[in-house]
Design a protein that fits this description.
Mean pLDDT: 92
Helix content: 25-40%
Number of helices: 3
Strand content: 5-15%
Strand order of the largest sheet: 1-2-3
Number of strands: 3
Shape: elongated
Distance between the termini: 22 Å
Order of helices and strands: HEEHEH
Radius of gyration: 15 Å
Largest sheet: 3 strands, antiparallel
CATH architecture: Irregular
Length: about 70
């Protein structure tokens, strides 16, 4: 069986917390920020945790990432 490789695109977009949860950034932050409220932009800039239903799938993609 070949070794599982870490998904290179995903490892640049997430971080693993000390307890093993997965942190991610929000979408809709690339451009068109003037149309959004200050509150919306402020909340989008904060990191969020990956939902528990997606964690198993994402952990398979980053199997070798430490």
């Amino acid at each position: 069986m070949p070794k599982a490789k870490t998904h290179s695109g995903l490892k640049k977009r997430i971080k693993i917390t000390g307890t093993g949860k997965i942190k991610r950034g929000h979408a809709y932050t690339g451009h068109l920020k003037t149309n959004k409220t200050h509150k919306e932009n402020k909340n989008l800039s904060k990191s969020a945790l990956v939902h528990e239903t997606d964690e198993k799938r994402i952990k398979q993609l980053i199997a070798n990432m430490k």
